[in-house]
């Protein structure tokens, strides 16, 4: 067994389908998974650093640090369950989150990243740690938007067309008609 096969086996999700279900580029999938994994490790470490705000009697930074560590742990459970294999139900949670649409993951990650910003706004560790989790949510949000249109579709739209070629044309209406000229809109009593 070669080294590449071993790495592929480690990166594959147990019990998961290896076939791609949608047309998201491979680099965007790995960007989301990689940034989520590395960013959550960094968020946990910076959340611990943020908890040292209790030395200066800053309780809101302590709460923000704890929240940031919990958010980082949840993201790492969802993105890289192999890092937490010692916890019983990590794989079940990871599979449940993986079966959801991309916009659900984007909303979850962005929602988890926002509260530390409001609690400890001026700490750089909050901006960088929760910012990485937020960036992971942005990548999943871009994946939820899907593939952009073809070159022909975009050229037709840029040329002033209202619909891409091949799509059914919407019903046209004359927008220059005023209220007084259209008998269907205005009827006197």
From TrEMBL:
Residue ranges crossing the lipid bilayer per the database entry? 35-57, 69-92, 112-141
Top-rank taxon:
Eukaryota
Region Disordered, annotated ranges = 157-189
| GO MF term list | calcium channel activity
Q: Which UniProt keywords apply?
A: Calcium, Calcium channel, Calcium transport, Cell projection, Cytoplasmic vesicle, Endocytosis, Endosome, Ion channel, Ion transport, Membrane, Transmembrane, Transmembrane helix, Transport
> Which family does the similarity line name?
Belongs to the calcium channel flower family.
The entry's cellular-component GO terms read: endosome; presynaptic membrane; synaptic vesicle membrane
- Native source organism of the sequence: Bicyclus anynana (Squinting bush brown butterfly)
- State what protein this is by name: Calcium channel flower
Q: How does it assemble?
A: Homomultimer. Associates with the dally/ magu complex.
Keyword Ion transport listed: yes
Picking any one GO biological process from the record gives: endocytosis
| Record's subcellular location | Cytoplasmic vesicle, Secretory vesicle, Synaptic vesicle membrane; Endosome; Presynaptic cell membrane
Membrane topology classification: Multi-pass membrane protein
């Amino acid at each position: 067994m070669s080294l590449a096969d071993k790495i592929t086996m480690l990166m594959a999700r147990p019990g998961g389908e290896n076939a791609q279900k949608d047309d998201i580029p491979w680099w965007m999938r790995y960007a989301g998974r990689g940034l989520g994994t590395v960013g959550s490790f960094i968020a946990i470490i910076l959340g611990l650093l943020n908890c040292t705000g209790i030395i200066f009697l800053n309780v809101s930074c302590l709460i923000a640090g704890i929240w940031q560590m919990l958010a980082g742990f949840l993201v790492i459970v969802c993105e890289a369950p192999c890092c937490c294999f010692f916890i019983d139900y990590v794989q079940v949670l990871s599979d449940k989150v993986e079966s959801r649409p991309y916009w659900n993951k984007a909303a979850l990650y962005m929602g988890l990243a926002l509260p530390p910003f409001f609690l400890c706004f001026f700490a750089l560790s909050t901006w960088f740690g929760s910012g990485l989790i937020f960036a992971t949510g942005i990548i999943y949000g871009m994946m939820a938007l899907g593939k952009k249109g073809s070159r022909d579709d975009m050229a037709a739209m840029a040329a002033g067309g209202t619909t891409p070629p091949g799509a059914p044309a919407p019903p046209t209406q004359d927008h220059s008609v005023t209220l007084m000229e259209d008998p269907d809109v205005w009827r006197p009593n």
